[in-house]
């Protein structure tokens, strides 16, 4: 039988202040899902993200913090999570998502029951500008509706032990659509399930907001 421990892998680059909401949501998951560990990966941040992760980890024996250096992308950061995670399920989460413990419990049950190998849920959003001022909200980013089997998944996803044991990795050459690329490669081998539940709240600058593109240009 597969090990059913869970690694919550949090990937973040310059994620303050929204990382605080993500970290605040994690203890409830450890209390609800036995065998949960947290792997916090800082992707070369310059804004105090690493210090916030270290503050969260202090005194917790269920948490590890890893720090990447240089110019790194999200694909590489997610690969670090997959490589450093314990055997079992891995929930890959961006550092600006406040996670719902009810979803994690339901997703783990879907894995245990054999209904799925890969699980995700809805992801409503609160939108901000580049100065972290709230500018609106959006309904489910992933459009799961009533849930059910799917042929693709997205960036925030729970990979079951059958998937992680296959040593799958993101294509680190990709800076866009790396999640879609991985989903296409896995869809014929594993069962993908969308649950009609909210995974968490995504605190983000809208994808096409001018402040996001200015930041992309500044980062090269």
Textual characterization of the structure:
The chain is an alpha/beta fold. 31% of the residues lie in helices and 28% in strands. It has 7 helices and 12 strands. Strands 3-2-1-4-10-6-11-9 form an 8-stranded mixed beta sheet, sandwiched between helices. Strand 2, helix 2 (49-57) and strand 3 form a beta-alpha-beta unit. Helix 1 (19-32) crosses helix 4 (101-112). It starts with 5 loop residues before the first strand and ends with a helix. The mean pLDDT is 91.
Mean pLDDT across every amino acid position: 91
**Main sheet?**
8 strands, mixed
What is the element string, with H for helices and E for strands? Answer: EHEHEHEEHEEEEEHHEEH
Q: Please compute the radius of gyration using only Cα atoms.
A: 16 Å
- The helicity comes to 25-40%
Termini separation = 46 Å
Based on secondary structure, the structural category is alpha/beta
Shape: globular
